[in-house]
Amino acid sequence: MARKPLIAGNWKMNLNHLEAIGVTQKLAFALPGKYFDVVDVAVLPPFTDLRSVQTLVDADSMPITYGGQDLSPEDSGAFTGDVSGAMLAKLGCTWVVVGHSERRTIHGEDDELVNRKVHAALRHGLTPILCLGEGEEVRDAGGHVAHCTGQLDGALKGLSADDVAKVVVAYEPVWAIGTGKTAGVADAQEVCHALRERLREVHGAGVADRVRILYGGSVKSNNVADLVKSDDVDGALVGGASLDPEGFAELCALAAGGPLP
Ligand SMILES: O=C[C@H](O)COP(=O)(O)O
């Protein structure tokens, strides 16, 4: 089944709301409309930027989608500092990142919390970009496939097949994030394939064939094309390389099959 690739730029804690306007404008200007027929392009700015990005995207009818980098598992109430799925949905978000390794490591998020966040996202009509991936020691010990399929099972617990089909999975080996070390194309395909097979086993072929599985970890213009050519890699979650709009536009174009004119 043909799955449209998704290239999502996770800005992490970079770019204030004024800078966000400039970067989004430049990205839309640099990437001709025809590329959006072939790839979906998303930006994932900090919470404080979302209203500015929404206003710009709406005003100029940009084909770019956007989303948050995290959400609360709760819907409202006394949860100081948290942002709910309802709030993100109201801002026109399509996506929300859940379970990024930086949240798992720095904020101690476990599979149970990640699972609650996936449920919260879907409850509010947001598409979760569910991140998972192994650390270097797990890979060195050869446990990467079991580790990642275990995280997948934990995150999807209690979801209907219809809801699982809506989720985007992002395989991000922790040792490749922000390090310049990219998993080889064969390594990325191995884990993405194993994740799809696990989806097939637990949720059925119809679901497994629909779910987009991205690769993330030091994706750049020089490796994106080869990565997305792999059978089970349906796009990329891009960190550092998404902060430069012209470079990110080039990366999106390469994922769509050719460089910018
Ligand atoms: O969410 C994005 C990933 O953490 C990858 O970040 P990176 O492209 O800077 O390695």
From TrEMBL:
<feature type="binding site">
    <location>
        <begin position="10"/>
        <end position="12"/>
    </location>
    <ligand>
        <name>substrate</name>
    </ligand>
</feature>
<comment type="subunit">
    <text>Homodimer.</text>
</comment>
<comment type="pathway">
    <text>Carbohydrate degradation; glycolysis; D-glyceraldehyde 3-phosphate from glycerone phosphate: step 1/1.</text>
</comment>
<dbReference type="InterPro" id="IPR035990">
    <property type="entry name" value="TIM_sf"/>
</dbReference>
<feature type="binding site">
    <location>
        <position position="178"/>
    </location>
    <ligand>
        <name>substrate</name>
    </ligand>
</feature>
<dbReference type="InterPro" id="IPR022896">
    <property type="entry name" value="TrioseP_Isoase_bac/euk"/>
</dbReference>
<feature type="binding site">
    <location>
        <begin position="239"/>
        <end position="240"/>
    </location>
    <ligand>
        <name>substrate</name>
    </ligand>
</feature>
<dbReference type="GO" id="GO:0004807">
    <property type="term" value="F:triose-phosphate isomerase activity"/>
</dbReference>
<dbReference type="InterPro" id="IPR000652">
    <property type="entry name" value="Triosephosphate_isomerase"/>
</dbReference>
<protein>
    <recommendedName>
        <fullName>Triosephosphate isomerase</fullName>
        <ecNumber>5.3.1.1</ecNumber>
    </recommendedName>
</protein>
<comment type="similarity">
    <text>Belongs to the triosephosphate isomerase family.</text>
</comment>
<keyword id="KW-0324">Glycolysis</keyword>
<keyword id="KW-0413">Isomerase</keyword>
<comment type="function">
    <text>Involved in the gluconeogenesis. Catalyzes stereospecifically the conversion of dihydroxyacetone phosphate (DHAP) to D-glyceraldehyde-3-phosphate (G3P).</text>
</comment>
<feature type="binding site">
    <location>
        <position position="218"/>
    </location>
    <ligand>
        <name>substrate</name>
    </ligand>
</feature>
<comment type="pathway">
    <text>Carbohydrate biosynthesis; gluconeogenesis.</text>
</comment>
<dbReference type="InterPro" id="IPR020861">
    <property type="entry name" value="Triosephosphate_isomerase_AS"/>
</dbReference>
<feature type="active site" description="Electrophile">
    <location>
        <position position="100"/>
    </location>
</feature>
<dbReference type="Pfam" id="PF00121">
    <property type="entry name" value="TIM"/>
</dbReference>
<dbReference type="InterPro" id="IPR013785">
    <property type="entry name" value="Aldolase_TIM"/>
</dbReference>
<keyword id="KW-0312">Gluconeogenesis</keyword>
<feature type="active site" description="Proton acceptor">
    <location>
        <position position="172"/>
    </location>
</feature>
<keyword id="KW-0963">Cytoplasm</keyword>
